[in-house]
Design a protein that fits this description.
The protein is an alpha+beta fold and 330 residues long. The protein is built from 8 helices and 12 strands. Helix 1 runs antiparallel to helix 2.
């Protein structure tokens, strides 16, 4: 099913004025026919009064970035896309299976009962018009195991719009629910390929070579793969996915504390390694300067004692407490 763009004249205002004039003439004819005893005029006027309203359902008003999918006795007629005041076949009906389905910024697709419980549904909400605006779907956070089996919580925001109204209406049952479910499925498929943090011997690209991809460090790459996966799945629904962004990423609560301790231990080890490397370099530099200046001659035993003392001072967690020897060194 492909979209057919209806290019009809925007003559809705002319038809509306004509119908008003027709009703005025019918009322005048009814009064005149009843007063003058003209049964033919009276009958025609009553018939017009009782049937002229049939043309009113054919009046359609479209605002910018709105579309109307029309069917006639079950057959797809076409789609109105341009804003304006139209008159179409009064027997045409608009179709929008997702008219009562709402996508909320902070939740998933809401059911009909949930919408009614949250707030009354207005006439505008029940309109069969399809919005062509850019919209955002912010699904609920999901708990997914990464490639190492660690449970993580992740949420995404998907920016999308309707590209083909005929596909959106006729190819799927409810294009909003369809999009939401496909976002969840695509998110799970991509997240399970990546570790939360950089891990050795992990191939995230599928080329057989280990890389440094991760959910935390490669968020742009992960988001791009999620967007491509969703786009492939919703192509049949006439939906264009413009962007997908990760809005929340964290370890699941049951392992968050353990992973925090692991990160802290790794940070402490890295810091200690840096301190030791720096201390060894400073001790080596001190010995070289003493030898070059020949300020004092140290044997191997005294060099070892000096190295030990300097390393204790430079690598200690607390300030050094010096011990002053006022006598001989021996």
């Amino acid at each position: 099913m492909k979209e057919k763009n209806l290019s009809i004249r925007k003559n809705g205002m002319a038809v509306l004025l004509l119908s008003i004039l027709l009703y005025v003439a019918a009322v005048a004819g009814t009064v005149l026919g009843a007063s003058d005893g003209q049964p033919l005029l009276l009958g025609i006027s009553i018939f017009v009064l009782s049937t002229a309203w049939i043309i009113w359902p054919g009046l359609k008003v479209l605002r910018p970035q709105e579309a109307l999918v029309l069917t006639l006795f079950g057959k797809y007629v076409g789609t109105l896309r341009e804003p304006g005041f139209y008159f179409v076949n009064p027997f045409c009906s608009a179709v929008n299976p997702a008219a009562k389905t709402k996508l909320r910024q902070s939740g998933d697709v809401s059911s009909k009962s949930a919408i009614q419980a949250a707030s009354p549904v207005s006439v505008e909400d029940l309109s069969k018009k399809i919005s062509l605006k850019v919209m955002t779907l912010d699904n609920n956070r999901q708990k997914i195991n990464d490639c190492l089996g660690n449970p993580v919580e992740i949420g995404i925001a998907v920016t999308w719009k309707i590209r083909d109204t005929a596909k959106a209406v006729f190819n799927v049952d409810n294009y909003k629910e369809f999009l939401s479910l496909q976002c969840d499925s695509a998110l799970r498929n991509i997240v399970r390929l990546y570790p939360y943090d950089i891990s050795p011997n992990v191939d995230t690209t599928g080329d057989g070579v280990a890389d440094e991809g991760s959910l935390r460090g490669s968020s742009e790459t992960v988001a791009a793969r999620i967007r491509a996966e969703i786009q492939e799945r919703v192509e049949e629904a006439g939906i264009e996915v413009l962007e997908a962004r990760i809005t929340h990423l964290a370890y699941a609560p049951e392992i968050a504390a353990v992973m925090l301790q692991r990160q802290q231990a790794s940070a402490i080890i890295d810091a200690r390694k840096m301190i030791v490397d720096g201390a060894v370099g400073m001790v080596e530099m001190a010995l070289e300067h003493l030898n070059e200046s020949q300020l004092v001659t140290l044997d191997e035993e005294r060099k070892a004692a000096m190295v030990s003392n300097l390393l204790v001072v430079l690598c200690g967690n607390h300030d050094a407490q010096p011990v002053i020897n006022s006598g001989s060194l021996y």
